[in-house]
């Protein structure tokens, strides 16, 4: 999500070839190919914001609202273009989130029980306090049911801010934020599932459960071929989608299943391929030295057989989770997230709307919930958990860094905008909520950046 050490080194090296080396190092993390990056999402968001507020903005919105239908005989499934992006593409992003979180909990900075409790406690505080603040502003009003808007954070943007300090902050900061973001997003998705879903279809949910258990069974059997996993993953998505629950939950759930350990260790690889390598060399040499075409063909076939064996053993040293993340990240960074922004950012900026937002309980509750509630809830809950002895502050992480994590958690952009569309049917309420989310995300991003910047300076002193 943020930058791995290898990608960080690549960014630093590229900066030396540019006359604006400092600028390249600052913006490089926002456009890193090897990790999910926030740069393309930021550009798409700004572009969508500009288009929506242009004279032809209404036509642009209608373009994304046009239905795209799939039909077979009497069966028809119709969704708007924006809904297809949300339902079909965004689960890929959350698949990566689930995979990254499992890796951190299994063998990363959160591998011990007490460090794992740390982000879980923070996620609980980062959910309860913002919702409480929103309710304090909106209880008893027609907008009180919109509390889910402050429940989740924008993972891509928050991790992009942390990526700017990847060489100046300990790796545990990224791990804690990643785990907090995943748990927070799962809470947000559960809010969507149970608070803003009209009806749940149990048979489809059962289909998702059966397919999910089948994936677990194949993993227990150490099944290697990827096709069954792909088909079962699609079945999980279809089941969750058909049940009425938002299908991004399917992405997180499947991601948590992916193995984070290779099937074959480096030593095991060396032991298994030593003899096949010798046999490959012998067969290749025999094929090159003989004048008999039939013998040469037989030796070439034998060499290719050994080469196939070596190739499969090499593949066994690769983690399934890491391989999937490596394949998906460029598509998610440069296609999925930008399309989400282009289709979902529909914030109209006008003097009357901004004036109304400054006094409406709805917008005030959202801004206070995200800007104040997220950092206070995360910091307070994690501090309490450490004081009670149930959690431990991860190695190298300071409380100022924790406050920075809580700060960037207030960037509620993508998921908050999505929940807004579900929570409010009144266009005026939707507009007020969207303006508040934009304002809160900007303030939270700046606040988090300043906290990390100050923490990095203190750590380097």
UniProtKB/TrEMBL annotation:
Q: Which UniProt keywords apply?
A: Antiport, Cell membrane, Ion transport, Membrane, Sodium, Sodium transport, Transmembrane, Transmembrane helix, Transport
> Mind telling me which GO cellular component terms the entry cites?
plasma membrane
Cell compartment(s), UniProt: Cell inner membrane; Cell membrane
This enzyme catalyses:
Na(+)(in) + 2 H(+)(out) = Na(+)(out) + 2 H(+)(in)
Q: InterPro entries in the record, alphabetically? A: Na/H_antiporter_dom_sf, NhaA
Q: Which residues cross the membrane?
A: 41-61, 117-137, 149-169, 175-196, 203-223, 229-258, 331-349, 361-385, 397-420, 432-452
One GO biological process this protein is involved in is: regulation of pH
Q: Name one GO molecular function term.
A: sodium:proton antiporter activity
Specify the protein's topology with respect to the membrane.
Multi-pass membrane protein
What does this protein's UniProt record list under function?
Na(+)/H(+) antiporter that extrudes sodium in exchange for external protons.
Regarding protein family, the annotation reads: Belongs to the NhaA Na(+)/H(+) (TC 2.A.33) antiporter family.
Q: What is the name of this protein?
A: Na(+)/H(+) antiporter NhaA
Record organism:
Sphingomonas liriopis
Taxonomy, top ranks, is: Bacteria, Pseudomonadati, Pseudomonadota, Alphaproteobacteria, Sphingomonadales
